[in-house]
Amino acid sequence: MSIVEILLGVNSPVDLVVILSFLAVLYFGLKSLKPPSRPKGCRRLGLPPGQSNLDDEFDSKYSHGLPNGQDTHGRPSWRVKALFSYPLKSCGAVELQTSNVVPTGLEFDRQFVFAEYIDDVWNIRTLRNAGFNRLALIHPQIWIPDPSAPDYDADLTEVKSQGVMLISYPRTPPAGWHGLPIKAGMALRILERQHTFQVPLFPPTDSEFPLVPVKIWKDKTLAYDYGKLLPASLHAYLGSDPSTGTLTLFRASTPHSRQIFRNAPRKEDIGFQPNTAFADAYPIHLLNIASHRDVAARCSYAIPRLSIRRFRANIIIQGPTAFAEDHWKRISIGDTEIHASCRTVRCRLPNVDPLSGDRHDAEPDRTLKSYRRIDDGDRTNACLGMQLVPSKEEFVVRVGDAIEVLETGPHQYIKMLAPGENVEGV
Question: Among 234, 309, 342, 361, whose Cα sits 20 to 30 Å from the Cα of 17?
Answer without folding.
Answer: 234
